[in-house]
Design goal:
The protein is mostly helical and 649 residues long. The chain folds into three domains: 78 residues; 334 residues, Neurolysin, domain 3 (Orthogonal Bundle); 131 residues, no CATH class. 56% of the residues lie in helices and 4% in strands. The chain is built from 24 helices and nine strands. It has a three-stranded antiparallel sheet with strand order 1-2-3, with no helix packed on it. It has a two-stranded antiparallel sheet with strand order 4-5. Strands 6-9 form a two-stranded parallel sheet. The longest helix is centred in the middle third of the chain and has 34 residues.
Amino acid sequence: MLVTRIGSGALLLMAALGLAACGGGGEQPQSARKPVQTAASAADADAFVAGINDDYREKLPYFSAAQWAQATYITDDTQLLASRANEEWLEYLSRKVQESKQFNEVDASDDTERAILLLKLSTANPAPSDPAKRAELAKILSKMEANYGSGKWCKAEGECLSLPEIEKIVNDPTATPEARAEAWLGWHETAKPIREDYVRFAELGNEGAKELGFANLGEMWRAGYDMSPAEFDAEVERLWQQVSPLYDALHCHVRGKLNAEYGDEVVPKDGLIPAHLLGNMWAQQWSNIYPLVEPYPGVGSLDVTAALKARRDGEYKRLLSEFKGKPTPLDLAELEHQADAAMAVQMTKIAEDFYTSLGMPALPESFYDKSLLVKPRDRDVVCHASAWDMNMQGDVRIKQCIEPDEEQLSTIHHELGHIYYYLMYNGLPPVFQGAAHDGFHEAIGDVVTLSLTPEHLAKIGLVPQQEIDNKAVINSQMKWALDKITFLPWGKLVDQWRWKVFAGDLKPADYNAGWWDLRAQYQGVSPPVARSEADFDPGAKYHIPGNTPYTRYFLSFVLQFQMQKALCDAAGYEGPLHACDIYGNEEAGKRFMDMLAQGASRPWQETLEKLTGTREMDGSALIEYFEPLLAYLEEQNEGLSCGWEAAKR
C-alpha cells in the first residue's frame, strides 16, 4: 500500500489495483473501493501554515525583484520577466488556497485560522485555476502597468511629455484653462489602449474570486476587514456621512472663488467644477490652487517649496563650482541630475529624522543604496511613489521621482510610514506581515504629516518662525483642507466604480459614463472636454491599471486624525488638535510602535483599541481638527447657492 501526502494536510491511502471480482454479489473487493482520505487535523493545519511561512521567505524576494525591475526599468524584457514571475506567484497562491480548503471544518487555533484567511485574501488579483487563463491574467496586469508607466502625451509639434511633466501644466494655477485642459486631455488619451484589457481583466479576476467562494472580485476585496462585505459597505457609508459636510462646505467656497476668477462661462456659480481647474490631474487634492483661495493673503505664508528649491539650486551651484574645466551641455545635464539626487536624499533624511525622533531605528544603509529617489535620465520608470518590502527581513526601499517641492516632501513622510510599518512587523511570521487592515498602512505616514505644523517647519529650518494668530490658523487649515478634505470623496468613489464593474452593475459599454456619474455625485466635478465610451478615463489613474484597492485611502484619511489625537494625548499635549506636533516624543513613539508591531496578527479592532482605546473607526477627530476652518467656511458661504445636482442618465 502506497501512502501519499496531498499538500500539507490529509493522507490519501492508495491501494494497488487488483483484478475485478466475478459476479454481482458479495462484498466489494478491497482493491475496488474508493480511496480513503483521513480527516485533516489541527496539527496538519499548523503544519500547512508553517509551510506557507517558509515559502513566503523563499519566494517573495524573487517575485519582488522581478516587479521592482519592471517598475524601475521599463522594457519589453522586464515586462516579460515580471509577467512570468507574477504568473508563478498567482499559480502558487491559487494552489495553496485550494489546498487550504481541506481545513475549512478543522477546529484550528485562532492564529492558524487567521493565517489561512489572510492567505485567501493575500492578492487583489485572484487567478483562475486554469493555467492558460492564469497566464493571460498575469500578462494583462503587466501590460496595463507598463502602459501607465511609459505613457506620454506627444504634442502636434512633436514634443513628448511624461506624466510628471504634464502634471506641471495641470497643477499650475497661473496656466490658462485652455492649456490645462489640453494637458489633461493629453494624459487621459494614454489610457485608451487598455480599455479592452480592463474588460478582460474584470472577467478573469471575477472568475478567480468565484473559485474562492466570493460572488465577485469586489466582494472579495471587501471581505478583508474582519466583518462581512455588507457590514463593510455600511461602515464606509457611515464614515462618509460623518465627514461629507466638510467637503460640501469647501466645494461651495472654492467654486465661488473659481467663478470669480474665471467667470460663469468657465465655472458655473451653482454647478459642477471643471476637474482640470483644481490643480491636480485627478482633482483628488487641490493644494496647488491655494493661491487662488487663500483666505488672508500673505498672512503666515509658508513657502516650503521655495526653501527646498533654494537648497537644490545651492547644491547645483556647489557642484558646478567644483567641476574641473568647461562643462559641456551633457556635463551640465549630469550636474543637474546630481543636484536633484542629492536633494532627494536630503529630503528623505528630513522625513527619516521625524521617525527616529520618536525612538524608531535609523533606516538600513541598503535603503539609500537601493531606493530609486529621482527619475533616471536614461530610461522610463513608474514614477508613482511606492514603498517596497523586498524580503520581509529588512530590505526596504521606496520608488519615487522626488522633486524639491512641499507635496513631494509630504509624500516622502507618507512612504516612510509604510517602510517603518514593514520594519516594525518584520519580526512576525510572514503571513502576519501586513497591516491591521489596508487603511492602517496608508494612515501611518499621514499621521506624521499632521505634525508638519508651521512651528515644526520652522523648527527644522524650512520656514521662518511664525507669529500664529487666527488668520494664520485659517490659512494653514485651508491649505491642509485642500489636501485632506478634498481627497475624501475621491478616496471613496474609485472603488465604488470598480465594485459596480465587478458586480456587473456597470457594463463595459458604460464604463466611462459610469465613472463620470460617480465623480459628479461625490466630487461635484465635470470633465473639461466632452467624453465618450471611446475613452477610458479611470485608466488614467495608476491604481486602476495597477489594480490596487483604493478604499484603503479613504479609511486612512479618517484614521490618521483619529490616531493623531490618540498620540497627542499620549504625548501629554494640551491644546487644539491642529497645532499638535509629536516630533521628539518617545512616549507617543512607543505607543505608535507597539501598534505597528502587531501587523495583521490580530483583528483591526483590537489593534486600533491598543492605540486609541476604541474599537471603531471615527471621523470626529477629523472634524475637531478642522473646526476653525469650518466656522470660517460657514461664514463665507452665507448667501451662496451651495451643493450641486449630478446629471441623471
